[in-house]
Design brief:
The complex is a heterodimer of chains A (about 70) and B (about 150). Chain A is mostly helical and about 70 residues long. Helix content of chain A is about 80%, strand content about 0%. Chain B has about 150 residues and is mainly alpha-helical. Helices cover about 65% and strands about 0% of the residues of chain B. The chains are: A mainly alpha (about 70), B mainly alpha (about 150). Chains A and B meet through helix 1, helix 2 and helix 3 of A and helix 2, helix 3, helix 4 and helix 5 of B.
Chain lengths: ~70, ~150
């Protein structure tokens, strides 16, 4: 198995783990200080600098993925 | 004393969300741009133009929305945000992904060091998948500005 498949799979598993733990904590099913990605991003975009960082990251990601 | 409503619409619930021509036009533009992007050859000027157009439209629309929000002084009350651990966890995952992507980006040859974009280019034969991914990215950009 190529190393990049292992790395991307590990990163995806970590993201899914964070998301699931975040939702379970939000629903009160487990005791955890994690939160779903949407809640974190909503909190980040509520502040001007946070929103600016999100916009720049979004633009870079799109340019990188779809243009160059 | 308030009088009872009369006429043919009496007793019916009125639709409070009017049809927005702006939203319809934006959706049509986004769909057209997604199709244009998906049908363009990767690394071509058409792909650049479609992506740059979406970036300009979202940032321009967001700036107008922000200006309107400020002029209306409509500041939403701040709720308690997620705990710091949640920020740290997501920051770690996103930073690791970005770091790996950048490492691969500067690695050569590309076949041995594929980036997300090169993996996406392999989908270039599937225009529907590319258009869907592009549309999802545009929606994410809209979400950043949404109030």
């Amino acid at each position: 198995v190529p190393y990049y498949v292992v790395v991307w799979a590990a990163l995806a598993a970590a993201a899914v783990g964070c998301e699931v733990a975040g939702w379970l904590a939000h629903a009160g099913r487990i005791k955890s200080r994690l939160a779903p990605l949407e809640h974190v991003l909503t909190a980040v975009r509520s502040k001007g600098p946070g929103r600016a960082v999100l916009v720049v990251s979004w633009a870079w990601l799109g340019w990188h993925l779809f243009a160059r | 004393v308030a009088s009872k409503p009369e006429g043919p619409t009496a007793g019916r619930r009125r639709c409070t969300a009017p049809f927005s021509w702006w939203l319809a036009a934006a959706l049509a533009l986004a769909a057209g741009d997604s199709i244009a992007q998906a049908s363009a050859r990767p690394f071509s000027w058409r792909a650049d133009l479609a992506t740059a157009g979406a970036i300009a439209a979202i940032i321009g629309g967001g700036a107008v929305s922000l200006w309107k929000e400020k002029s209306a002084r409509a500041t939403a009350p701040l709720r308690r945000g997620p705990p710091a651990t949640a920020y740290a966890c997501w920051a770690l995952v996103i930073t690791a992904a970005a770091a790996f992507e950048l490492t691969e980006l500067f690695g050569a040859p590309r076949r041995d060091h594929p980036t997300m974009s090169s993996l996406l280019t392999s989908l270039s034969g599937h225009e529907v998948s590319r258009a869907t991914l592009f549309a999802l990215w545009v929606v994410a950009g809209y979400w950043i500005w949404r109030r």
